[in-house]
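subagent[fold] <- orchestrator: predict structure for attached chain, return C-alpha cells only, no commentary.
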Amino acid sequence: MHRSKVAITDSQDVFRESIERAELIEQLLAIGNALSSTYDLGELLTLILTKSREITFSDAGSVYLIDRSSEVPVLWFKVAQNDSLPAASFREFAMPMTYKSLAGYVGLTGESLNILDAYDLPEGVPYQLDRSFDHSINYRTRSVLVLPMQNQERETIGVLQLINRKIRPDVVLTAENVLDMTQPYSDWEERVLRSLASQAAISIERNHLQESIEHLFEGFVRASVQIIEARDPCTSGHSERVADLTVRLSEEVNSVTTGPLRLLHFSDRQIQEIRYAALLHDFGKVGVPEAILGKQKKLYPMQLEVVRNRFALAQRTLEMECAQAKYRHLIEHPDHRPNHEKGEECPHCHHLARLDAQLEKAIAQLNRYWEVLLEANEPRVLAEEPLALLREIAHYVYQDIDGQLKPLITEEELTQLIVRRGNLTLEEREAIQAHVTHTYEFLKRIPWTKQLKDVPAIAYGHHEKLDGTGYPLGLKEPDIPIQSQVMAIADIYDALTAGDRPYKKGLPVSTALRILRQEAAQNKLNHDLVDLFEHRRVFSVLGHRDSD
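subagent[fold] -> orchestrator:
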C-alpha cells in the first residue's frame, strides 16, 4: 500500500512537471511570436527582459547592448526593471566592457554566469558585483543569471542579466528577507533562458538591420532632395517645407473627432509614407531642362542679349543710312551753296535737319519698343497695350550686315513675350508639368516595402484637382488618394508664400489662406482639409503667423 502511494505521488510529480514544461514551451512560443512582430528597439528590449523575468520569477533584471564601433567595446545599459522597487529610476548609460564586471565578462567571453550569491563570489574570479547600485536604492542582489545574447554567427551583441530568482512571483523583496525569499537559478532555467537570449539576439539584430535600411533609405531620400535643389536652386527648401506641412496636417487629421475627417486615421507608417512622398514629390524635375527650371523671365538671358544686340544693330543701321543719305545729297547737289551775304537760306541745312529729325524719331521708336519689350519680359499679367505694341514690333525689320532684311524679334521670341500670365510658354509649362510623370516613373522603380508601397501613387496625385482640372491625369476626387489631397494643400501654400522665387514675391499668410479657401470653394482642393489647415494653424510649423 505504501509503495502504491509513493508511485502515485511520483506520477503526480511527473505529470505536474510535464504540465509546467508544456506551459513553458507555450510561453516560449508566444514570446517568439512577440519578438518577431516587434520593431521598436526599446519595446523589443523591454519585452525580452519582461518575459525572461516572468519565466524565472526574477525580481529584477537589465539588458545591455554591445557597441563595437570604437576601439574599446562599450556596454550600453539600455533597460532595467525591479518589481520590488518599481519607482526606482534608471537611466541609459555606457561603460567600458571589461572582465571586471559581470556583464562585461559575459560579453567578452560569451560564457554564462549562474551565481548563487553575488556578494559571496568564489576566489580568483576576475569579475565583481558593483554594490554601489544596491546601496543607492537600498537593495540586496543575491542570485544572478547573466547570459550572452548571441547571433547566428555566435557573436555576442548583448547581455541579459536576471537578478534574484524568487520562490514565488508575488514576493516583494527587501534587504531583510532576500536570503529567505530567493533561490538559485536552475540549470534548466539557464538552458531555456540561453536559448531565449539567442532568439532575442536575432530579433535585436533584425531590428538593427531594419534601422540600418531605414537610415540608408533616409540618406537616399535626402540625397535625392539635394539633387532636386541643385537642379532648381530657386526652390531650395521647398521639398522639406512641403514635407513638414504635409506631416503636420496628417497628424492634425488624426485628432479630428467630428465631421467627415473623423473617419480618417493615418498610422505612423502611413505618415512616414506621406513624408517620403512629399520629400520626393518634385524629384522628376531632374528630367526637366535646367534652363526651363531656372527661367526667371519670359525670355532666357541669352535670348534677351541677342535681341538687345539686334536693337543696337538696328540703331547703327539707321544712323549709317542717315549718314549715307546726307553724303548722297551733298554729292548730288555740289554747286547748290547759299549766299549768306544776301540772306539766302541753306537748302542743304534744311534737308540734313530733316534727315536728323527722321533719325531721332526712328531711334525714339526703337527705344520705345525696347522699353515695351523689357516690360513684357516680366512675368506679370500682360495688358492689351503692350500686347498690341509687341505685334507691331514683330513686323519691324532692319537691314543686317549681309544686306538682308531681318525681323527685330523672331516668331519664337514673340510667342514667349506674349504669354499672358507668368513666364512660361505652353510647351515650357508642359515640360514643367511632366515632372510629375517623371517622378512617378522614377519612384515606381524603387522596391518599396509593404508599408511604403503607395509612395509613388501619393506623389503622382499631388497636382490633381478635385474637379478634374489638375494634371497629369485629370483625376476627380474619388480617384485622388487622400494623402495626395493633403500634400496638394501643403504644396500650393508653400509655392504661394515662399520668398525664394526670383520671378515672384512671397505672399502674406493671410493672402495665401484666402487663395486656398477660394480653391476649396471652387472644388479644386478638399474643403475640410483646407479648414483644418487654417484653424489648426498648420503653417506655424514653418514659423509663419497669421499676421505675416
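orchestrator: received. Logging for downstream: The two ends are 97 Å apart (CA to CA). The chain has a mean pLDDT of 85.
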